[in-house]
Design brief:
Layout lengths: L6 E5 L2 E4 H18 L5 H16 L4 H24 L15 H24 L7 H19 L4 H19 L3 H29 L9
Antiparallel strand pairs: 1-2
Helix pairs in contact: 1-2, 1-7, 2-3, 3-5, 4-5, 5-6, 6-7
Length: about 210
């Protein structure tokens, strides 16, 4: 995997590695496919995680471990969307807003998970270069992927919350390339949020008897 860790090019004074560039591009593709509710979003997310796992394994144990979790959630998402395929009127999955109980459970899991992972990163500094923000972004990503797997509109809100920390954090630490990628993530999230929001409202409206569907 030395090739993945080699330099692809230099941008804004930042040395971009092949693994970072490929992983980010696959991440953008996966988000765009998620917006379109294509089941292929999950294989793309899994492949991105696999590439980054291979790049990190052996020298960045914490980063490799995070990608392993991402791959497991991607497999769960594939399974969920396979089960729900065809529920929407257009043959894709149906999307909906989460219940208040589901929102509370996800918020609690995100808070508890962030604290637990941050404490783990703090106890073992080699696992992370910035424990608390890194834990927040990692746990937020997992929660967002879970909500996506369940077809919840809240998936997009979770991504926005991740971006709010990810964008300034990357720029502040000199990772301009990753920071710009997160900005693009933010734009895709807003478009995807609008699309899923409108679809969930349309699906919730009852069809009047005798009216065209």
């Amino acid at each position: 995997m030395n090739t993945l860790n080699s330099e692809a090019f230099t941008l804004f004074g930042q040395h971009i590695k092949w693994a970072d560039m490929i992983g980010n591009l696959f991440g953008l593709a996966a988000l765009a496919l998620g917006w379109r509710r294509s089941i292929w979003t999950w294989p793309v997310q899994f492949l991105a995680g696999l590439i980054l796992f291979g790049a990190f394994f052996g020298h960045l144990t914490g980063s490799a471990g995070k990608q392993a979790v991402v791959m497991l959630v991607a497999l769960y998402g594939w399974w969920q969307w396979q089960r729900g395929k065809g529920q929407g009127e257009d043959g894709h999955i149906a999307v909906r807003f989460a219940t208040w109980r589901e929102r509370g459970a996800m918020a609690a899991a995100a808070a508890a998970g962030t604290v637990a992972v941050a404490l783990l990163f703090t106890a073992y500094p080699k696992l992370s270069w910035d424990p608390w923000p890194d834990a927040y972004i990692f746990v937020g990503t997992v929660v967002a992927m879970y909500a996506q797997a369940r077809g919840m509109v809240e998936f997009w809100f979770a991504w926005l919350l991740v971006d709010l920390v990810g964008v300034p954090l990357n720029f502040a630490n000199g990772y301009a390339f990753s920071g710009f990628v997160y900005v693009i993530y933010g734009a895709l999230v807003l478009w995807g949020l609008r699309d899923w929001w409108l679809r969930s409202r349309a699906a919730a409206q009852p069809t009047l008897e005798g009216a065209p569907a």
